[in-house]
Amino acid sequence: MELVVDNLGVARGGIPVLEGVSFSVSAGQALVLRGPNGIGKTTLLRTLAGLQAPLSGKISLDREAMAYAAHVDGIKTTLTVEENLHFWASVFDVPEIESAISAFELEALRTRSAGMLSAGQKRRLGLARLMVTGRPVWILDEPTVSLDQAAVAMFGEVIKRHLASGGMAIMATHIDLGLEDAVTFDLGHLKATSNLAENFDEAFL
Amino acid sequence: MMALLKRDMRLAVRAGGGFGLGLSFFLIVVVLIPFGVGPETGLLGRIAPGVLWVAALLACLLSLDRVFSLDFEDGSLDLLATSPLPLEGVVAIKAIAHWLTTGLPLVFAAPVFALLMSLPVNGYSALVVSLFLGTPALSVIGAFGAALTVGIKRGGLLLSLLVLPLYVPTLIFGAEVSRRGAEGQDYTTPLLMLAGVSFAALALLPFASAAVLRVNLR
Questions:
Q1: Residue B82 to residue A51, Cβ atoms within 8 A
Q2: Which of A1, A25, A193, B194 makes the best surface tag, with the fewest CB within 10 Å?
């Protein structure tokens, strides 16, 4: 399996932010997006995840292949850690959550309500959710925010295992996760030059 | 789908979930009205069908802005939109969960509240039937309004302005059913119209709501 992104243009709020984005990621590979704040990393990732339509260009894999993790984790604070994971596992039709719990060392927090977790623990739960999606392409937007060094290493291990099993990862991060053969892709020179999208339908602003 | 329904119900009954909010609002209105219009049972009985229906409608409105906004804020909505569940199904399930936690309790509580409003005895069954058939429309139409206003902070007022006009047919036919019931007349026609409004809303609006959500999530 290979993800090919060809000449992709993305817009935020009707204003093009990136154009001519082309890269390919093959199974077992990780791609790290770099670029200054506001260049459009999040917009690009949301487009890849299928949350918004691209302005131009093509994405070779269907959105059904993507698992998206954003700045916010989609955790319900009144549910316990286990209930949160069980919910997403059953939405994605994945039978078990134990490997996700042990990979992020959430065993002791199982029955704790998610509202009682610290920011780093919440993040770990949010990332554990990726493992219960069963999807090959992980799309990660600043995954290491509020993680301590040990948790970053934990997460690095999880990604390595995911890649080794033939998965892919596309992430926007400035922290080194210890992935030896991750490809870095700099978005700095792809800033869109046109101010308004052609044929842009204002009704959908 | 069932998992989502179960989660939403669970969230509703846990702390801060808003279960019982509509019910207690309904109770407060019904307790206050007799103080406002005076204890004359004849007058109360005459206005009871309309008052009960308006109260039910406002009680429903009270919890509507939570249908999508909470999931939007914590990112769950993005994740649900990228999940294998069709967004139309997500919307329908959320509307059903709203009905189960707001509309259905009102249906069961209605006879008690009708007593407080001294509704004539023969009007009880009509009231319960009309609420049972009408409140699903309130939830589904409301979910559509909630989908329209999902990205807006404090969208509650805008939501009410958008949704209330759409509630009018349900209110008219629902109140008419219970009025005719209370007066001992035949209420088949308005009941059929009420059921028609509910089923049409249930069949069409999830698609509209899903389309609106997709635009709002960009």
A1: yes
A2: A193
Judged by a CB distance cut-off of 8 A, whether residue B3 touches chain A is yes
Parent domain of A169: 28-52+61-183
The answer to whether the Cβ–Cβ distance between B78 and A51 falls below 8 Å is: yes
Give pLDDT tens digits for A102-118: 888 888 888 898 888 89
Tens digits of residue pLDDT in A67-102: 998 888 888 888 899 999 989 999 988 888 888 898
B80: contact with A, CB 8 A cutoff: yes
Tell me how many domains chain B contains.
Answer: 1
Q: Most confidently modeled of B36-40, B62-66, B183-187?
A: B183-187
The answer to whether the beta carbons of residues A159 and A22 sit under 8 Å apart is no
Hey, is the C-beta of B210 within 8 angstroms of any chain A C-beta?
A: no
Which residue from B10, B73, B83 is facing A92, i.e. has the nearest CB? B83
Domain assignment present for A189: no
Q: Is residue A22 included in any domain, yes or no?
A: no
Structural domain of B125: 2-217
**In this structure, are strands A2-12 and A137-141 parallel, antiparallel, or unpaired?**
unpaired
φ, ψ of residue B33 in degrees (nearest 5): -55, -50
The sign of the CA dihedral B141, B178, B105, B60 is: positive
Out of A51, A90, A92, whose CB is closest to B218? A51
Each residue's pLDDT tens digit, B156-179: 889 999 999 999 999 999 999 999
Query: How many folded domains does chain A comprise?
Result: 1
